[in-house]
Design brief:
The complex is a heterotrimer.
Chain A lengths: L4 E12 L2 E12 L3 E5 L6 H9 L6 E6 L2 E2 L10 E4 L11 H12 L3 H14 L15 H13 L5 E5 L7 H18 L2 E6 L2 H7 L2 E6 L2 E6 L1 H6 L4 H6 L4 E9 L2 E4 L2 E4 L9 E7 L5 E3 L6 E10 L4 E7 L2 E7 L8 E5 L6 E4 L4 H6 L4
Parallel strand pairs in A: 3-8, 3-9, 6-7, 7-8
Antiparallel strand pairs in A: 1-2, 1-4, 4-5, 9-10, 11-12, 11-14, 12-13, 14-20, 15-19, 16-17, 16-19, 17-18
Helix pairs in contact in A: 2-3, 2-4, 3-4
Chain B lengths: L9 H22 L10 H8 L1 H33 L3 H12 L6 H12 L4 H8 L11 H25 L3 H9 L4 H29 L3 H7 L6 H10 L3 H22 L4 H6 L3
Chain C lengths: L1 H29 L16 H8 L1 H33 L3 H11 L1 H4 L2 H16 L4 H26 L2 H9 L4 H30 L2 H6 L7 H7 L7 H29 L5 H7 L1
Helix pairs in contact in C: 1-12, 2-12, 3-7, 3-9, 7-9, 8-9, 9-12
Classes of the chains: A alpha+beta, B mainly alpha, C mainly alpha.
């Protein structure tokens, strides 16, 4: 593991106008991985990316690239390139000149520039667009040019700041697939910033979920989805039912007066906890067979499944199921023990951000 | 908000036709007729061939070009500096920079005279320091200083508006792709500032080339610009020759606004930040 | 490195700032100078203000300037605002032509606007008088009114006006109750900007004022051979403070009306 570390952030903090955007952040990034910084707006993910890119200098802490401290190195001397949020294509240059910009700075020969630019254009599927004005191209095309402009310099790392944010839904889906391909082809590290959890789950090898300037959880998409470390992660990744509960003893939790067997242990007796249950893990059955009884209050068809709200024990349960129950019908609710996630309650707002759970 | 409201613009349209179009027609009429009422190009030809006129045209173009260049050289770095101030303060600072322009124009001229006169502030200071006096008042230099002072805001505002709207990520992207500060400036910042530079240059050049009051107030009536000749022609009642020169001035305005695509709205909007 | 460039930036900004304010500040400071000479400090006094208020010619010109300014601005605001309402009903092509012609005085050299008006008035009424001066000022400032009012009017949601009609208001009542309050910031800033431009004008006034009539600008210009009168210092200080006041109001109205307030919803719908 150790030797794979390509970039390391050590104790990085940053504040703007007295507001702490990053709080003592530690993070390492392995060679060739596709890592996503995921979180709501204002969580510090873009600042983190800008610190890696060299556009923002951290107040404290160091940025290490292959063992060397690059904290004070200006962006033009770093071996990484960025795809900016709104692409930042140079409006006074055509497609070819935009992509050739970095190569010209390096003093690459004209012949070599031509070869490498057309190679890049082919890779992003825009061969023949060399002479076009970038301002006349669609969002998706601009996006590809931005990627080509960055990759043509053969960087060790590509930084992508919400690159799909400006595209419509269909285009986003296509580009996700393409990004994954480009990552495979280029064989370099991608650091990706987004607030879209679905995008993060689809694309990444590793996801770092951030909130309030702190990394809440870092792991593979599967880990993050199946084993959220705290209520914030659970709520942010996919839909969740987050219900107040009391841990009676190991392997038994009381939710709203009803005991549920579970697989978690190591809590204090009678400790108030957050119980997280994914909507697809809530099983609807007849009232008699259910652990809880409730009434369906709303029903929406979502294509693959139905989404229902079930009022039971004073909580509105979100349920995903392929079978529908009409509004007003009385149902029973069951949850398998292994699908119940128990989490410590945060003791303060700050701890909620920090996701303290040790 | 329908066709019924069309008549409300009646007075406005009458005004535009009556006080903008008709006066222009009048001046073209005079510009192309002789005192006897016959059609002629003589007034226009005279405007650009008369030796006194030619001298004035040369001097005026030189003066206007210099004023524009100085405003640009002072204003562009200033606009760049101002765009880097914290956003919270930017508007207020720009406002402060525009404010002196609102002192009455004639009183501005008076103030500049107080500074430049042979017994003025500058020379008082020079004498106190035991240095020799400089003679600026009533020279070409005094007019130039007056023009730069008076028209500087017209340069600053369009420049600032362009520069402050430059996407910071374009600069970042250039650095990201390996360009140092100098190359970033010449390859990105400067080319993208051009619209503002051109617009500012027009807004200084047009009033500068048609000025007569600054030349009269600061030049002591010794230096004849095109504007002074036009003014004299009209106050002396030589409407035909005067119109010929006025049409020449208009040609300058039209040509420079065609080159720059300036439609005047910028000036109206740029009077305030 | 970064600190150094920030310091240099500050120095540059400060230097130009000083240069721009030197004449204004000089006039204000010297206006309190007891000494008649500009270059010696004779102690603090109001003699120059006394001289100013005692100078009938200047006071008359000041009155002319202010009355002319308010009259021209009021007339221009009325014509311009009504014009904007009518313009909304025009086809885009016509509208474009109208505004191109209307903006000619903005772009054209003042001297050309001035002499063309002078020639025109000479041709139709023979000589200049206070009416030709007023008409010329309205012509000069009309574009500023339109440029301030039109954008506000174009933002105005016509269905609100129609709703007022639907609820039984007469068109005039609907205009005053619904439309005017909405576009008022634009009308007010248009009026104030027009007033400021009129107060400051020299060139147009010079050519269209007629014998015997003077605004401050033309008076100073006509008296230029007499040199710098002590009254000018006091006048400069007062005029600067007066115009500063006008500009501040314009800024405040602009900033206030830029805030979305309760109209946020409507704006969202239109986007």
């Amino acid at each position: 593991m150790e030797k794979e570390k390509l970039i390391e952030l050590v104790g990085v903090s940053k504040s703007y106008d007295g507001e702490n955007v990053l709080k003592n952040l530690d993070l390492y990034i392995r060679d060739n991985e596709f890592i996503t910084l995921l979180g709501p707006s204002g969580c510090g993910k873009t600042t983190t990316l800008r610190i890696i890119g060299g556009f923002v200098t951290p107040d404290t802490g160091r940025v290490i690239f292959e063992g060397k401290d690059i904290t004070a190195l200006p962006p033009n001397k770093r071996q990484l390139n960025t795809v900016f949020q709104k692409y930042a294509l140079f409006p006074h240059m055509n497609v070819f000149e935009n992509i050739a910009f970095g190569l010209r700075i390096q003093g690459v020969s004209e012949q070599e520039i031509k070869r490498r630019v057309s190679e890049m254009l082919e890779m992003v599927g825009l061969s023949g667009f060399e002479k076009r004005a970038v301002t006349q191209m669609s969002g998706g095309q601009q996006q590809r040019i931005a990627i080509a402009r960055a990759l043509v310099n053969k960087p060790r790392v590509l930084l992508l700041d919400e690159p799909l944010g400006a595209l419509d839904f269909k285009m986003r889906q296509d580009m996700q697939y393409e990004l994954k391909n480009i990552h495979k082809q280029a064989g370099i590290t991608f650091i990706y910033v987004t607030h879209d959890q679905e995008e993060a789950l689809t694309l990444s090898d590793t996801i770092a979920v951030m909130n309030q300037g702190i990394i809440q959880q870092i792991g593979t998409p599967e880990d993050i989805y199946n084993e959220p470390k705290n209520a914030f992660v659970a709520d942010f990744i996919g839909d969740s039912n987050i219900i107040d509960g009391v841990m009676l003893h190991d392997y038994l939790v009381n939710i709203r007066g009803v005991d549920f067997p579970c697989v978690d242990a190591g809590f204090r007796r009678e400790e108030p906890v957050d119980v997280v249950i994914r909507p697809e893990d809530v099983i609807l059955t007849t009232p008699e067979k259910g652990q809880l009884q409730g009434v369906v209050t709303s029903l929406t068809f979502k294509g693959v499944h139905y989404e229902m709200d079930v009022e039971a024990c004073g909580y509105e349960w979100l349920v995903h199921s392929t079978k529908m129950e009409p509004v007003g019908s009385h149902v029973g609710i069951c949850v398998d023990p292994e699908n119940i996630q128990i989490m410590h309650k945060p003791r303060s707002v700050d701890e909620e951000a920090a996701g303290v759970d040790e | 908000m329908n066709k019924k409201n069309l008549w409300l613009s009646g007075p406005y349209l009458v005004w535009i036709v009556g006080f903008i179009l008709l006066p222009l027609v009048t001046i073209f009429y005079y510009g192309f007729t002789t005192a006897q009422g016959g059609f002629t190009f003589a007034n226009i030809i005279n405007a650009v061939t008369d030796s006194a006129n030619l001298k004035a045209i040369g001097l005026t173009v030189l003066l206007a070009a210099l004023a524009t260049a100085i405003c640009l050289l002072l204003g562009y770095p200033l606009a760049l500096c101002l765009s880097r101030i914290g956003l919270k303060w930017q508007k207020a600072v720009i406002f402060l920079f525009i404010l002196p322009m609102w002192m009455n124009f004639m009183l501005q001229m008076v103030a500049i005279n107080v500074i430049l006169e042979d017994n003025g502030i500058i020379n008082t200071i020079l004498t106190a320091l035991g240095l020799e006096k400089v003679h600026i008042a009533n020279t070409f230099g005094a007019i130039l200083i007056g023009m730069v002072y008076d028209y500087f805001p017209f340069m600053l505002l369009p420049l600032y508006n362009t520069v402050s709207r430059l996407d910071g990520d374009l600069i970042n992207a250039s650095k990201d792709l390996g360009a140092g500060p100098l190359r970033t400036f010449f390859k990105i910042t400067f080319p993208l500032s051009l619209p503002g530079l051109v617009s500012g240059a027009t807004m200084v050049f047009i009033p500068a080339i048609s000025d007569f009051a600054i030349a009269e107030m600061l030049g002591g009536g010794k230096i004849m610009l095109v504007g002074n000749i036009v003014e004299m022609s009209f106050t002396k009642g030589q409407y035909y020759q005067g119109s010929g020169l006025a049409i020449l001035l208009m040609a300058f305005v039209i040509i420079s606004s065609l080159i720059t695509g300036e439609d005047g709205e910028n000036e109206g909007g740029a009077m305030l930040p | 490195m970064k600190k150094l460039s920030a310091v240099l930036r500050g120095l540059y900004i400060g230097l130009i700032f000083l240069m721009l304010y030197l004449p204004v500040m000089l006039m204000i400071v010297l206006s309190f100078n007891e000494s008649r000479s500009a270059y010696e400090w004779g102690g603090f006094s109001f003699v120059k203000y006394e001289a100013l208020f005692g100078n009938e010619t200047i006071m008359e010109a000041l009155l002319t300037t202010v009355v002319l300014g308010f009259a021209a601005a009021a007339l221009a605001t009325l014509i311009g605002t009504l014009g904007c309402i009518g313009m909304l009903a025009m086809r885009k092509r016509v509208q474009k032509t109208v505004s191109t012609v209307a903006n000619i005085p903005l772009l054209n050299a003042d001297i050309v606007t001035g002499v063309s008006l002078m020639l025109f008035f000479t041709a139709i009424v023979g000589r200049m008088n206070s009416v030709t001066l007023l008409a010329s000022h309205v012509t000069l400032i009309l574009p500023y009114v339109v440029l301030n009012v039109y954008p506000k009017l174009a933002q105005f949601d016509p269905s609100v006006y129609e709703a007022a009609l639907d609820l039984g208001a007469s068109p005039v009542k609907a205009f005053f109750k619904v439309m005017l309050p909405d576009i008022f910031p634009g009308v007010l800033t248009g009026f104030l900007l027009a007033l400021t431009i009129s107060l400051d004008d020299f060139t147009i006034t010079y050519f269209t004022k007629g014998q015997g009539l003077n605004t401050l600008s033309t008076l100073i210009y006509t008296n230029r051979i007499r040199g710098i009168l002590p009254e000018y210092y006091a006048l400069a200080a007062l005029m600067f403070v007066g115009v500063l006041f006008l500009i501040l109001i314009i800024q405040i109205v602009n900033i206030r009306s830029a805030k979305p307030q309760a109209r946020g919803d409507k704006q969202r719908i239109r986007r």
